Amino acid sequence: MKKNKVNRSSGIGGQAVLEGVMMRNKDDYAVAVRKPDGEIEVEVDVFHGCLHGSKVTKIPFIRGVFNFIDSLRIGMKTLNYSASFYEDGDAKETALDKALDKVSGGRGENILMGITMVFSVALAVGIFILLPFFLSSLLAGYIRNDSLLAILEGIIRILIFFAYVIGISMMKDIHRLYQYHGAEHKCINCIEKGRPLTVHNVMRSSRIHKRCGTSFLFFVMFVSIILFFFIRVDHPALKLVIRILLIPVIAGISYEIIRLAGRTDHILVRIISAPGMLLQRLTTKEPDESMVEVAIKSVEAVFDWKAYLKEHFGYEVDESWMREKDPEQDPD
Question: What is the model's pLDDT at position 105?
Fold first, then answer.
């Protein structure tokens, strides 16, 4: 079997949701959820991002900003969908729900989701951008070197980020979410390594992937250190403004780096990707086979992995061959 040496990135990505996995392939996405009764529910839909169809979203560095916003939107939407299977069936609509629906013409849920997203972004900016600035400013009376203060601010930012990741990874409910995160990565790695998408093959694939959102966030931390080091102003208020205004720039640069990481194995790319991939050992956990089954359902709903293997690895996969290699797979 001769493997194609050109780029073999599948282009698919996703995220873990409550008891499930969302996979996205271009505009199509699927959410597979293991319901309380044990059955797997799969929803397939189309998601049009910001400025859909516009050439603006294809411009390097600018497209990363829109991609980040779209990821937040679809992530919130699919998380709410998965959570709906585990909500209390007797829960009543609140007065706030009724008021928002009345004012918005039945779009109250979308408004709440938008408010939640804005609040989440503001909270993240406060914790990971502004808080390190204020903490490093406390040392300004003792350290007169602006370059050293900028470096200390970056170190504090990374320490806060690591503390946050480690802290939430210790939560019991987050552990299962991280297992589904691992299942998502394993499916993508399985395909991109040229293996048929079976439970057996997925289970033996790596749970670490260079295009992970965890790595993206680490790049955000890293890029912010560099930009804040070289772009300086003297006035404290302007320093805060500059940090906020540079957030889209940081997101755009980080997106291009992680996009490149998913397309090449160059030694330099592997070096800068290493810290984020190491961090993924905290944000992904080894899934069990039932979780992998859910992830496979999500992939197959939006991605023809057999055609992908034929195009990039030069061989076809039929059902009888798959059952022979993976005897526990359900023939149906």
Answer: 59
